[in-house]
Write a structure and sequence with these properties.
It is a single chain. The chain is mainly alpha-helical. Helices cover 51% and strands 8% of the residues. The protein has one domain: hpI Integrase, Chain A. It is built from 9 helices and 5 strands; from the N terminus they run ββαααβββαααααα. Strands 3-4-5 form a 3-stranded antiparallel β-sheet. Strands 1-2 form a two-stranded antiparallel sheet. The longest helix is centred in the middle third of the chain and has 17 residues.
Amino acid sequence: MSPPEPILKQDTRILYPSEYRAIRSQLSFKDQLRLDGLLFSGMRGVEFERFLENTTWYKPSRRAIDLPKGSNLKKKAKQAERTVLLSNAGVQAVETLLSYRRQNPDDLRPISRQAWSETLLRAAGKAKDEGQIASTAGIAPKMCRKTWSSWLLATHSHREGSISLSMGHDIRTMLRHYAGLGWPADAREQIRQYTAGWGGE
């Protein structure tokens, strides 16, 4: 079976679950942790890097990450602070990441956007060579955040307000870019497995 035709929004890839797994399989364990943390939290890169230095922002009893004022350098950000809600996959990703960081405190150092982009493109190139994905078009760091927004809207569309607050998106912009992508039934079912438990559902 051939890989799905890529979905691009604003020249950035929106990953199918199969594409996420294909790219992930080509990464080192440390980079798999970074990919999972970025994807399943939907945090911006700078927020994620600051979270790694401030792990008490994770609130396991609430299955959430509280991002305080100043955690995001984006000037146009709609919220100065926000709570990032996690799915079951998100909780697992964050707890695995934090456990690894405790045991290897020097191993998950901040990485530049360019270096992370190169790492993702290299992994995607290998996945393409093996016939796992159709192309490397749109592979970039921000694809994680865009993919997660799309996945949540595909499975939790009745909670679009909560999604926009958790992601720090303007709701109209979010719906315009990430809603109604027309996922095939099998992809939607796989997405549902990753978004299960999000926000306590």
